[in-house]
Amino acid sequence: MSPVALITGASQGSGRAIARRFAKEGYDLVLAARQADRLNAVADELRSDDCQVLALSTDVSDPDQVQTLVDSAIERFSAVDVLVNNAGICLTGSFQHTTLQDWHSLFDTNLFGYVNTIHALLPHLLQRGHGAIVNLGSFGGKMPLPMMTAYCASKYAVTGLTQTLQFELEPHGIVVSLVHPGVINSDFLERAQFRGDATTADTSKARLTETLNANWVSQPDEIATAVWHAVRDRRPEIVVGLTAIATEAYRLAPGLVSWAMRSMS
Fold first, then answer.
1. What is the DSSP string of 99-127?
2. Binning pLDDT at 50, 70 and 90, where does residue 10 land?
3. 4-264, which class in CATH?
């Protein structure tokens, strides 16, 4: 029987690349995302005699939908070996232009989306006495980013969630890992949200568009490789690509890096 990976945010970008990597490694897949048409297209692409795929349209911010997802996965495959929490929202804007609804939306997906899947699947993993959970963080969960207060707060929360779960679940045979991408060159811009007056929002969007063309930006396959290595090698944390230089610089000299970022903004 093939091992099974449950992947959220699997309809495009990094989620799709992660699904492809786990299919290549011999896993059957449970794929979740809100957009059913795109999700089903990915499922159809990956289905084969060697890879069975269950695709369910799911809003991870809704605990009832997540419980249905997990119950359906266990009913179909009898077991889930790996959970990859990848679904997320990115929002750029100053605190004063970020509404309370924006904050709730970000945390409902970026944090509670992860909490909901872990809460639903954990009894199954504990009963089996083994498994892996990989949470997709961000370099914005290791260092502050200008004009991204709400986003960084949600990703710092993911860092705290993951690191604490590592203490709790390791004695039970469950590996919990954190993968920190930087900016990802995918269909990221399609989903990014910008807040502020028209000029500020347009400037932020133009900067991000320019950044996506830089040669240091991560590719979805790099994220997929990092997630696979986290599971295969039981690694607690991976910072992807050149982003590791920035996060390490901030760890060693936070004042200097903060000054440099303020100078560039």
1. -HHHHHHHHHHHTHHHHHHHHHHHHHHHH
2. very high
3. alpha beta
